[in-house]
Amino acid sequence: MKPSIQLLAQKQLIGMSETMSLVADKTGQLFRTFMPRRKEIPNLINADTFDLRVYPEDYHQAFNPAKSFTKWALAEVSKVEVIPADMGVYNLVGGQYAVFHYKGLSSDQRIFKYIFMEWLPQSDFVLADRPHFEVLGEKTKLNDPNSEEEIWIPVANKK
Questions:
Q1: pTM of the complete model
Q2: In CATH, what number is assigned to the domain containing residue 62?
Q3: CA 44, chain centre distance (Å)
Q4: What SS3 string covers 40-67?
Q5: Domain that holds residue 145
Q6: Beta 132-136 vs 148-157: how paired, if at all?
Q7: Per the structure, how many domains does the chain have?
Q8: What is the pLDDT of residues 17-73, one digit of tens each?
């Protein structure tokens, strides 16, 4: 699986966040809370939802599945006017990303093993210190092997 390399423009997003780890994963709870309330967000650009993670700077150098990070469930907006209760604004800084089109179960983590253990070390890129995210669109279906999503990994050119 070969990614496309894309330059992402800055985005304004509104949603909910939760601190978690891979061991204490609260993704299901976060999205069960956010998705029914998504319609409260004014100025939505489209129906896509962002599953975004903000990792501590050293997260990938000293990998520990119990180490905490912040996960966001977000929707992109054209402008921020009203922020619904219990939600926040996230300004996603632009930059270069490797974008993988993934088809399969979201619970199948082999794609991430491939990205970080095979593709990235053999590529002309290094991991950049920006958020990682998936774009969940109309072809994304929970617990469906035919589900599709985009996986966005922040990268920088190797020096």
A1: 0.92
A2: 3.20.80.10
A3: 18
A4: HCCCECCCCEEEEEECCCCCCCCCCCCC
A5: 4-157
A6: antiparallel
A7: 1
A8: 999 999 999 999 999 999 999 999 999 999 999 999 999 988 888 778 899 999 999
